[in-house]
Amino acid sequence: MPFQLNRRDFLASSTAITASSALTGCQVFSSQKLKLGFDNFSIRAMKLKAPAVLDFGAKHNVDAVLFSDLDVYESLEESYLKELRAKADELKIEIHAGTGSVCPTSKAFRKKHGTAEEHLRKAIKVSKLLGSPVVRCYLGSIQDRKTSGGLEPHMDATLEVCKSVEAEAKEASIKIAIENHAGDMTGRLLRELIEKAGADFVGATIDSGNATWTMESPYKNLELLAPYIASSGIRDSLVYNTKEGIKATWKAMGDGTVDWELYFAKWQKSCPEVPVFLETISGLSKTFPAPKDKEFWKDYQDINMNDYREFKTMTSKGNNKKITSKHKDLEKKVLFSPEYMEKELVKSLNYCKNTLKIGRNA
Fold first, then answer.
1. Are 242 and 307 in contact (CB under 8 A)?
2. What tens digit of pLDDT does each residue of 201-212 get?
3. Which residues of the chain have pLDDT under 50?
4. CB of 158 within 8 A of CB of 198?
5. Per residue in 277-334, pLDDT tens?
6. What is the pLDDT of residue 331?
7. What is the pLDDT of residue 193?
């Protein structure tokens, strides 16, 4: 059933939960704010190393930081990583750690850290030393949809890599948190991969923006992945109609089409202890032609048409927002500048703190 919780339903359910908890002594999730953080990828143009990223986080009173790549560290030596963990503990900042593609057949995979299995084992070791409960990683990107056999062979290869390090992940108490990344897997496909691998050691890094790049609404993506969410990458998306088709543009929080009050009401019920990591990549867009464009849609045979229609409904709000906000595409030199990245992240953090009331250190 599609996720269509409205405010009246949510308030009614919240009242019922509160009444029930008073009788049973259970904790009500809504009594505790969600944790707020950011992915270092949001400000990659600033070229900050991990200690400076933590200082940036402390300056903005975040609860957590996601180090989503191995290059953010000045060293992978045990002593360095333990010092970094001690610094985070002192600042009261929770660390989630991760890396890039661990799919050896993906166009996104890099051999810098050895084979896919060696790469993932290294990332698990780093995560353990940093006290991270997860190792965030991903399959690939939208380009993998265009290869022979589509995503299925890449999903099989990713599954094999995960199973090869199952023992190490379980011994370290680390969950492999695979992201729906850059237009590769929908929430449905990622859920399928997690369930095949084993949800006891594989989970999801849920990415609301990447959902729109598979023609999936963030609400549907959250509904599908809710039982398996272990980490996150969150940003807004402006979804609207153009002459070429439906366009999805990533935006700062509050500047897009997503109803975040509804989204985080569901989050609060499903995974209240998983930090909301902002991964602002503002300005990048994808345009999706109508289903009658057979050449384009041959790479999207996995798309559930009910999900597509739900995604399409986001344009009714997006069309109006595009007009009122005078939306325009910015040059890449602006989008990739350190000043713009910092501005978009800080704007998003403030929106989450002040409007959505997210963040325990806020």
1. no
2. 999 999 999 999
3. 1-30
4. no
5. 999 999 999 999 999 999 999 999 999 999 999 999 999 987 776 655 555 667 788 8
6. 78
7. 98
Length of the chain: 362
| Secondary structure string (H, E, C) spanning the chain | CCCCCCHHHHHHHHHHHHHHHHHHCCCCHHHCCCCEEEEHHHHHHHCCCHHHHHHHHHHCCCCEEEECCHHHCCCCCHHHHHHHHHHHHHHCCEEEEEEEECCCCCCCCCHHHCCHHHHHHHHHHHHHHHCCCEEEEECCCHHHHHCCCCCHHHHHHHHHHHHHCHHHHHHCCCEEEEECCCCCCCHHHHHHHHHHHCCCCEEEEEEHHHHHCCCCCHHHHHHHHHHHEEEEEECEEEEEECCCCEEEEEECCCCCCCCHHHHHHHHHHHCCCCCEEECCCCCCEEEECCCCCHHHHCCCCCCCHHHHHHHHCHHHHHHHHHHHCCCCCCCHHHHCCHHHHHHHHHHHHHHHHHCCCCCCCC
Class level of CATH domain 32-354: alpha beta
Residue type, 351: Y
| Amino acid residing at 188 | R
171, with CB counted inside 10 A (0-12, 13-18, 19+), is: exposed
pTM to 2 decimals?
A: 0.90
